[in-house]
Design a protein that fits this description.
- With about 230 residues, the chain is of the alpha/beta class.
- It has one domain.
- The protein contains seven helices and ten strands.
- Strands 1, 2, 3, 4, 5, 6, 7, 8, 9 and 10 form a ten-stranded mixed sheet that branches.
């Protein structure tokens, strides 16, 4: 079973910026059952608008694959990490052949605290690949605060995600200079709460965004029908 994908259309957009991006799709939230939760901070609106079933995710075989990967990660952690390291090494070689820089997003459809996960050698994935760029979105204010304070792997970049239930955290993180991703209905505004809005749809390379901005995303898939407040009107 292959863990990493490079066929996700959003991450493929990074090629025009010089990045070969690979990512990991786990089954989001509690979808994998057995007491597993890969999105501990997900709100109701986040779960309802999740892009897990968008694109290839609409196929049952893809959903089954994501659940199998999640079980592998949850119940055979060390074997999973061993395979993950091998696949990232292979991705680095491919990126080099293509003349591109490798970027890795391990939470395409999850919000796992990868900075706390170590293998048998006591190393995190970021320590195994110190020159590789890793990035993710998160709804954990604590993770984001650690990132902004420098208590985070130097090669791991985070963008905070707004939901209908974390307005206080959004304001605090935005004031501290953190980037916040917000899903808007229709056209993106040029500013939100005094902060410049940049398009997060043009590429997924969040690690090259200027600091202190709002990353605007237009509603897609199930988010088009959101009624929870997860999606904002521009």
């Amino acid at each position: 079973m292959k863990l990493l994908t490079e066929s996700n259309q959003k991450i493929k957009k990074g090629e025009k910026l010089g990045f070969h991006t690979v990512g990991l799709h786990l089954a989001p939230a509690t979808l994998a059952g057995h007491g597993i939760n890969t999105c501990y901070w997900a709100s109701h609106g986040c779960r309802e608008a999740c892009l897990n079933t968008s694109g290839h995710g609409a196929f049952s075989t893809v959903q089954e694959s994501r659940i199998r990967k999640t079980h592998f990660f949850w119940f055979s952690r060390q074997a999973f990490l061993t395979q993950l390291i091998k696949e990232i090494q292979a991705a680095k070689k491919k990126a080099h052949k293509l003349g591109l820089t490798l970027a890795v997003r391990l939470n395409l459809t999850s919000d796992v605290m990868w900075e706390t996960i170590t293998d048998d050698s006591g190393k995190t994935i970021f320590q195994h690949f110190p020159e590789t760029v890793f990035y993710d979105y998160t709804k954990s204010a604590k993770r984001m605060e650690n990132f902004l304070s420098g208590n985070f792997p130097r090669n791991y970049s985070l963008t905070f995600s707004r939901s209908e239930s974390n307005a206080r955290e959004v304001e605090k993180i935005s004031r501290a200079g953190g980037n916040v991703a917000i899903v808007f209905r229709g056209k993106l505004p040029s500013e939100w709460n005094g902060k410049k809005v940049i398009s997060g749809d043009e590429s997924d390379a969040r690690f090259i965004d200027p600091k202190g901005v709002i990353v605007g995303l237009t509603q897609k898939g199930r988010a088009k029908h959101d009624a929870t407040g997860f999606v904002l009107s521009a």
